[in-house]
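Practice problem: predict the structure.
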Amino acid sequence: MVQLDRIDIRILQELQQDSSLTNQELADRVGLSPSPCLRRVKALEESGIVDRKVMLLKRSELGLKLTAFIQISMDRHTPDRFTVFEEQVNSFPEVRACNLVTGQNCDYLVEVVVEDMEKYHDFLLGKLTRIPGVSGVQSSFLLRSVKENTSLPLGHLL
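Answer:
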């Protein structure tokens, strides 16, 4: 694990909230001058702590009004089955997240975002259930998002 000081942690907290900050804005927020701030950001990126920078979009403004959380069961628990499933799921743009889980009555939890129920039906029957090894599917649908956060907690590093 990389050793981080309070300033590094503060930089990461600020960038998690808004990665579009200019170096000057970031430096002002963390109490550094621009040059040392930029050096620290580059060091954090090179360390591998920063996975990637993205822009978050509003689903509803893009006509993506249906979010489904799908529990997937596999017929066999073999590396080949899991590899095929994961490769296929990674190719589907509708899949926002896919996680191999334990402690549930399923093997994977998948989050899918589509325009409407008809598109979900097409996705489910035309793509997801056609993957070899998928033996069970149970869907739940988002009614309202109570909390949605992309930031990781960093308080334990202080």
